[in-house]
Design goal:
Elements lengths: L2 H26 L11 E7 L3 H14 L4 E7 L1 H9 L6 E3 L19 E13 L19 E4 L4 H13 L7 E3 L2 H9 L5 E5 H7 L3 E4 L8 E8 L4 H11 L1 H9 L6
Parallel strand pairs: 1-2, 1-3, 5-6, 5-7
Antiparallel strand pairs: 3-9, 4-7, 4-8, 4-9
Length: about 260
């Protein structure tokens, strides 16, 4: 090989190495932006908030470029237990103010704020084969009734409803959260379920709703609070309480506190 050829080969190799180094650095570099620098906000929320909080999170991310909102939805009692045991979280949003009672005091890094309320409704399959027309039918023979587990807010609310009605209906199964209860009805595995009215609305044509008289119904308040020192935590709570956040909740069937 000529001297000029060798020099050309070395130059080509150097250029290739430089390009590879630049590529690897770009792949390994953290995302940065004016709004967030690739940060993550972890939100744990009650199952009944699934649909609306996905919208709120999308709004928040749009206003905070580089920030990702990671959310998990389950029963409020489960969320509190997980956080007490050290599960990572920045914000928790629960159904029922009493759900906060077991939360360790040192994890309450901000005052809880009630951001919305919800009421109960009976969910029945779309064709309502059992002919459920109201709460008076909950004690009919052969009715497959499903409710949330007693320690879950929707289960506590269902028990309070039965006390208001003065009934003790047979329960076919107790489900871990309100979405699991609703799913039983959607799949035709239950004739009626006691859920939140927002869950009936979210199910669309999957179920039909049977209203509960206001005099007997149960109002559940929803608190939200920061459980980490992240400045994003308060910013997310501010989004929930903002006009836009409250409109998202109203559109989903929630009622302002």
């Amino acid at each position: 090989m000529t001297t000029s050829g060798a020099r050309a080969l070395r130059a080509t190799a150097a250029l290739g190495l430089a390009a590879l180094t630049t590529s690897l650095a770009a792949c390994g570099a953290p995302a940065t932006s004016a709004g967030g620098g690739g940060r993550t906000l972890t939100v744990l929320a009650a199952a009944s908030l699934t649909d609306v909080f996905e919208q709120v999170a999308a709004d928040f991310e749009a206003d905070h470029p580089g920030v990702t909102v990671e959310q998990s939805f389950s029963a409020s009692s489960t969320i509190v237990q997980q956080v007490n045991e050290g599960a990572p979280a920045d914000v928790i949003a629960l159904a029922g103010q009493s759900s906060l009672d077991p939360l360790a005091p040192e994890l309450r890094l901000g005052p809880p704020v009630v951001f919305t309320t919800n009421t109960l409704e009976l969910a029945v399959p779309a064709d309502n084969p059992a002919g459920i027309g109201g709460t008076q039918d909950l004690t009919k023979d052969g009715i497959r009734l499903v409710v949330c587990q007693p320690e879950v807010p929707c289960g506590t609310a269902a028990r309070t409803l039965f006390e208001h009605l003065g009934i003790s209906p047979d329960v076919a199964s107790f489900e871990p959260d309100v979405r699991a209860t609703l799913s039983k009805v959607e799949l035709g595995e239950a004739d009626v379920g006691v859920v939140y009215r927002t869950d009936v609305a979210a199910a669309g044509d999957g179920v039909a709703g049977v209203e509960i008289p206001a005099a007997d119904n149960v109002v559940s308040s929803y608190p939200v609070l920061a459980v980490s020192g992240s400045p994003l935590a308060q910013a997310f709570i501010d989004e929930v309480m903002s006009g836009r956040g409250q409109q998202r909740l109203a559109d989903a069937g929630f009622v302002a506190p």
